[in-house]
Amino acid sequence: MNEVGWNYFNKFDKVNEKYLPAYGEGETLAEQIVTAVNKLIYKWFNDGDVYDNVNSCMDGWCNDLSSYANWLHEYADGCDEILDEIFEIYTDRDYEFILAELADLTLNENYLSSYIEEKIGTIYECYGPYEFNEYSDEDEYE
User: Fold this and answer.
1) Maximum C-alpha span of the chain
2) What is the CA 46 to chain-centroid distance, rounded?
3) What is the mean pLDDT of residues 88-116?
């Protein structure tokens, strides 16, 4: 994989059509996984947000995405190892590779078919190893 851009994620359209709820996080674990992963991807390419701007060298600044990543870390097999890569990266390109690796793992029928049970917790309020610190213009002047 040489380049990861927004178009890379088009290959997941069929899975998203099936599992991405029209609103909210869905009613099954599979829907929660697809929602959380898509939130991370969309917020990066749309706003430049990352799921941990405290313990990593990444500067995501606008939206707190840590809950999505913490939920995936807790409830979706294999995501913890991929998401933990944020602690060892330094560039936007590296972060995009994390998102691609995460999507490749989770956004497919084989993976999601083992998560058909009812949802667990909420992707909107989950605590774990990833943290967010709200960026403020005042921070530049302190």
Assistant:
1) 50
2) 13
3) 96
